[in-house]
Design goal:
Layout: H1 2-17, E1 36-39, E2 43-49, H2 76-93, E3 104-110, H3 115-127, E4 144-146, H4 151-162, E5 168-170, E6 187-189, H5 194-207, E7 212-217, H6 221-236, E8 240-246, H7 253-265, E9 270-274, H8 277-289, E10 296-299, H9 315-318, E11 322-326, H10 334-339, H11 350-360, H12 402-421, H13 443-451, E12 454-456, E13 462-464, E14 474-482, E15 488-497, E16 506-508, E17 535-539, E18 548-552, E19 557-558, E20 568-569, E21 574-576, E22 583-585, E23 587-589, H14 596-621, H15 626-629, H16 633-653, H17 659-693, H18 707-730, E24 734-738, E25 745-751, H19 755-778, H20 788-812, H21 816-847, H22 854-860
Parallel strand pairs: 2-3, 2-4, 4-5, 5-6, 7-8, 7-9, 9-10, 10-11, 23-25
Antiparallel strand pairs: 1-3, 11-14, 12-13, 14-15, 15-16, 17-18, 19-20, 21-22, 24-25
Helix pairs in contact: 2-12, 3-4, 5-6, 7-8, 12-13, 14-16, 14-21, 16-17, 16-21, 17-18, 17-19, 18-19, 19-20, 20-21
Length: 865
Amino acid sequence: MAVLLSILISLISIPAKANIKITGPVCQLRSFTMSGYSRKGELNIGGIFSLHIGEPVSQIPFTELRDIKLCKQFPFTAYERLLAMIFATEEIQKDPKLLSNITLGYVIYDSCSTIAGAIEGTLRLLTGQAKPVPNYQCLSPVVAVIGESYSSTSIPMARLLGLYKFPQISHAATVMALSNKNQFPSFLRTIPMDLFQSNCIAHLIRYFSWTWVGLLSDSSDYGLQGSLKVKEELSKAGVCIAFFQTIPAVYSEMKIQHISEIIRTSSANVIVIYSNDVDLYPLMEVTAQNNVTGKVWIASDAWAEPYLFSKNEFLRTLQGTLGILVRKGDISGFREYIYSLNPYRNPDNIFLKNFWELVFNCKLQIQDKTNKNLTKESNVCAGDETLQGMTLDFFKLTELRNTYNVYNAIYAVAHALHDMISCRHGEGPFDNGTCALVHDFQPWQLFHYIKNVHFWNKNGEEVFFDIHGDPPAMFSIVNWQVTSENSFRYLDIGHFDATAADNQKLIMDVSAILWNEGHEKIPQSLCSESCSPGYRKVTQPGQPICCFNCIMCSQGEISNQTDSIDCLKCPKDGWPNERQDKCVKKANEFLSYEEPLGSVLIAISIFLEMTTAAILTVFIKCHHTPVVKANNRELSYLLLFSLILCFLCSFIFIGRPTHVTCMLRQSAFGIIYTLSISCVLAKTVVVVIAFNASKPNSSLRKYAGPRLPKLLIMFCTSVQIILCVSWLTASPPFLNENTTSVTGKIITECNEGSPVAFWCMLSYMGILAVVSLAVAFLSRKLPDSFNEAKFITFSMLVFVSVWMSFIPAYLSTQGKYMVAVEIFAIVSSGAGLLLCIFAPKCYIILLRPDMNTRDYLMGKGEFKN
């Protein structure tokens, strides 16, 4: 690139050197008169500043051909930087320890914020000619160049100066490309490059949790490179770009209106603008006319503290803007220096003359060498004007930022000159380790010392350049706040230090921020509202990842963070709470003694058990009475004892199951109940056999006897014992924690092991019950002395009805209710046997002893024909 630029400059110089005759009409490029000011010394520092700016592009219609004043407006902040250069040069002259006995001067030109002006000023500084000829080499009147203010004007300057490794230090150009030493070998700057500014913007947006932002840039390298870096940093941070538009370099009303409409209609409330103020002005003018408010503008340093947007028309639109500015510094004595300015003592200073006329709104009449006779004008300056006592609102003397960078740049050149002349820092670029004489060195030799300069300024701040020619990156965050005088003030509300730890890089004072109207709190800028814990994000089809829907986590899953992408499954013993934002331990469900249902069943079981025990006691005490003797009292004792055991079975079913209780509960219940039913069956069979055996010539006499009921009970019970032992041996019941049947609960239950064995056990018990019912039913009309068969019939009807109801109820419930159903069946069927068989006998024994006689029973036992 450097070679191509050299060839281009050589080609441009051909018409000036060659003897070429040009015939026909000739067109010429428009040019402007370049203003400059100098005070020469033994060593001079060049300066190129954007002291004037042109008309905003929106005010220049392309349909008209008229004279365009490029150097029209005079921003005071630019002049403040020029004054800082002059002040620093004069201050160095008074420092006995720095460049003593050497006169330091300066040569300054105004580029009018144009590339043409910057190039022409650079050529003048390189050649020392008022009308420079490209590629004409001679001794430069300056040793280094300070400037330019804009990246767009600094880049062509750096390309030209880089051909000769001529030192250039910019105080405001931030574009990242200028850190490339292959393209710009002699460029340095005292302002951080855009890479760090982009990092600062990304940190700022992440700090406020904004995830949906718009992005604008101008068409220069500064805007395009900076905005692309911002986009890259925001993408890394998970921030989505709602729109990305480029402000046209050539004014286009249609394009400007289009961008303004995008801003107005976008749901993004935060808009990052990486642009200079001149290119941005037309867009902001239209945006203000469209009354766009409620937006948070993030301003890059090129327009974060602008002169153009101080008008009233921008107050509503731009209030609350957050701007990124280089850190500020203090220049001791600078205020007093400004107060001492007087154009009458410096008649050659054209810039001071312009400044004076603007400040006091008058015309200076100063006689100089070129103007002998001055015409009289109205509103002539009186000559006694002074800046002393003025508020100097046009200068920001407490907010010196780029002005402070100029001050440090001048001192960097001075220290480098001092180091070069005094042979500091070891071997330099000179032969045999010699030192330079005041007038005997080349710019590239001085550049060696400037890039390695390292000193502490008067504020105690370290000044140096890294390998890319960049200073340490520190920024201030300013908030645009509307004052009572209807103007902006720029309040520092935070700072960014790229060298600090990650959690300390950005420090903010949020309480000091005044946001745009309509926002009392921190404005939100989201494509979609955040998903609260308990929900997860689902990206909307065709939209960026920041645009999503929130759906509740599935059953058994939680999300414990805002904006979770995935839901987490709870552990086996856990379950989501109602909001599904954390897992809670599942309730362990079993039929316990403490809960009402368990307490009621236990109370009933105890009552019936005590009742059975009382009846057994009564029967034992009254064992000699006819009622007890009737129908085999041994069977009655055994039946009552088995019923006691049946009621005791309830205790095995209630409480937390264990492996032992799981193996015992069903088998013990089955065997004991089989024993009870066997006793009932034996009693029924004894009644039938006894009645039939009493008939003459009965064949059943030989079966009547005390051994029959015992054998029958042993046989029927043994079959159930064999079934239960086989069950416990082959596939025994076991403890199981059921985590799936009931939502949010762990059912601690006994798994039956083999459902077939369980239902075989119940079926066998049911068969015995049906047989007992059938036999009792057939013998229900026997004589009254043998009326126990009638009561057995009632008891077995109750028993069969209960267990027939038990089956569907058992199958339709689970957990503790299934256990409760089985306990209820056990208790109610046992109570049916107890009441139906023994209640009539107890009535006779306890309440009607007159009926408890053999004569009464025999009398009652006569056959009825």
